[in-house]
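B., you asked whether I could sanity-check this one before it goes into the benchmark set. Here's the sequence:
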Amino acid sequence: MKNLLVLVIVTALFSCQQPITETAPTIIGYDISEEVRTPLTVGDISTVAVWEAYIKAHNEKDIATIEGLNATKDFKVKGPKGEVFNGSEEHITFLKTWFESDANPQWTTKFLIANAFTSKEGEVKQYVTSSHDVTLNIDGKKIKVNQMHDGLIVNGKVQEFTIHERVATE
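And here's what the prediction gave me:
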């Protein structure tokens, strides 16, 4: 009798469970490259922590941390004035000169968005799109610019990023 009761209870428990269904990723926008519209989906939030550490290291002028967060292979930066840094070494050389100047750049984060892009080959790429106000000292005057960054994060490292910039007006 006990076995029959246990069988009835187990059967009732299993019959009450909802079937597991896979849900499609949430589309948060689109990438439009070469006139092809590809969905952007919710990204891995851990990429935001990588980018926050990267910006913190820039504010602290911590070259070792920045270099440690740069990917060792195929690292690339596209700057706001058309400059391109191919490789971490070029980027670090630029930053050392900039940090040693009177410019004293300081970033204040406005927002960070983790997003994912799936290529036509099926490769999922994790990006962080962010906005920062950057305060600079130019000829003794404080200037503020707003920067938008789109950074590709791979295995906890910054693989590449693009910077868009405009002078902030108040």
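One thing to flag: The longest helix spans residues 2-15. Otherwise nothing jumped out at me.
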